Amino acid sequence: MGNPEGNGEVLNRRLAAWAIGTVMLTQGLLVAHAWGRWRVVGALCGLFAVRAVLNTSPLSRLNRGERLRKGEQWTLLLGNLALSAAESQLVHWSLLGWLNMMLQAVMLNGGAPSREGLTVRRVGLGLHLAVSAGLGLREGVEPGTVGLFCLAACAFYGLGETRCLILIDALEASRESHRRLERMQGQLVAHEKLSSLGLLAAGVAHEINNPMAFVTSNVRLLSRDLAAQRELPEELREYVDDVLPATLDGIRRVNAIVADLKRFARNDPEAPVEFDLNAEVSSALRLSQGERRGRCRMELELGALRPIVGQPRQIGQVVLNLLMNAVQAVQAREGVVKVSTREEPGEAVVEVRDNGVGMKKEVVGQLFQPFFTTKPVGEGTGLGLAVAYGIVTGHGGRIEVESEEGRGTCFTVRLPLARGESQRGT
Question: Quick check: helix, strand or coil at residue 355?
Answer without folding.
Answer: coil
